Amino acid sequence: MKKKSVDTLVVGGGLAGSILAWKLMQQGVRTHIVFDPKIPSASYVAAGLMNPVTGQRLVLQEHAKTLLETSKSFYQSLEEHFQTSFYFEKPMLRYLRNQKEELAWKKRQSNVDYDDYLEATNQPKCILQHHTAYLDTQGLLRCLHEAFECRGMLSHATMDYDEIDSQSSSIRWQHISAQGIIFCEGWRGQFNPWFQYLPFQPSKGEILDLKTSSKVPEHIINSGRWLLPMHDGRLRFGASYDCHPPMNESITSHGKETLLADLKQMPVVLEDVDVMRQQAGVRPNTLDKQAFLGVHPKHSNIAILNGFGSKGSMLIPYYADVLMEHIQQQKALPKNVDIRRYSCA
User: Of 89, 86, 70, which Cα lies nearest the Cα of 78?
Assistant: First the structure.
């Protein structure tokens, strides 16, 4: 195979790796992306929900306005480029399930920071969340990967760490020589020999694609589980949460039964529900619930962009820019995501 020289080698074909590779390419950075399509990616399974207020305590995501504006602008630019739709704004009805959530809502009503995101409704124990959306992750990744392939900047291969030569001034992998390498491997990043010291806490989630004879809700429904009306008429329902090792992307009968039982408890009546598809993915969660960004403390040409958990659709466009500015302009990383918060032995 003919030798190839690039500026950056990106490892991982999920949202993080693909969005980063696209942004680098748009800057004129010579980029090559490598991933194995046979290895499941959580990005392909994810519902792509974008929700700035989450958890039982109704916590507003830090820098929510900036994150939402950045992701919306980015996804809409891709929609224009590819002449198709990926980004769908849809409000969410959040049902308060216990006293803890009701107290949290009462507290948020007196906080002006939440005025633009949460609104009371006429329904008891139900609030309306604004600035929520979902991303068609499968459609987006399909378009990005096709674009990479057309440009000859994509390799379908399993990344064998032993094949990476990082001892010289450049990174060498198979026929490719790169000035630097950025790992965006999702939960499997915990096996990366350069970043094994980072505390990943992956969790498995299963979701169902449904069809029903009932009228589909207009809003995203959140009542412990979420019910997402898709643009193509499907309903997606999920997601389960399992943090017990060993991790894998296999669907389970227990997962399906649990979700169907929970569906019956949702505050919406659905008749003649059929399961069209069941999927499973592993979220790249971290110990402190913050992403992993930065350059390896001992290898200046090895970096990471990972650990976005279930919030990747909302966070990655912004933090890809942050990492690029850090590498290219030496801009300091936010302390909450900088991998230097953990020591490398």
Answer: 86
Average pLDDT over residues 107-130: 96
Peptide bond into 246 cis (omega under 30): yes
Q: Measure the CA–CA gap between 295 and 8, rounded to whole angstroms.
A: 13
**pTM: predicted TM-score of the whole model, two decimal places:** 0.96
Residues 91 and 220 sit within 8 Å (Cβ to Cβ): yes
Which of 62, 93, 292, 300 shows the shortest CA–CA distance to 199? 292
> Smallest Cα–Cα separation from 137: which of 227, 36, 13?
13
Radius of gyration of the chain (CA): 21
| Residue-range domains of the chain with CATH | 4-45+137-198+288-341 (3.50.50.60), 49-135 (no CATH), 203-283 (3.30.9.10)
pLDDT value for 64:
97
Token pair listed for 277: 């598809």
Average pLDDT over residues 171-196: 96
Contacts of 4 (CB under 8 A, 6+ apart): 32, 175, 176, 177
The mean of the pLDDT values for the chain is: 95
Reported as a single tens digit per residue, the pLDDT across 288-306 is: 999 999 999 999 999 999 9
pLDDT for 316: 98
Query: What is the per-residue pLDDT for 233?
Result: 86
Structure tokens given for 38: 């046979």
DSSP annotation of 272 reads S
Beta bridge partners of 49: 134
Q: Per the structure block, which two tokens stand in for 246?
A: 């060993």
- Among 166, 202, 199, smallest CA distance to 182 is for 166
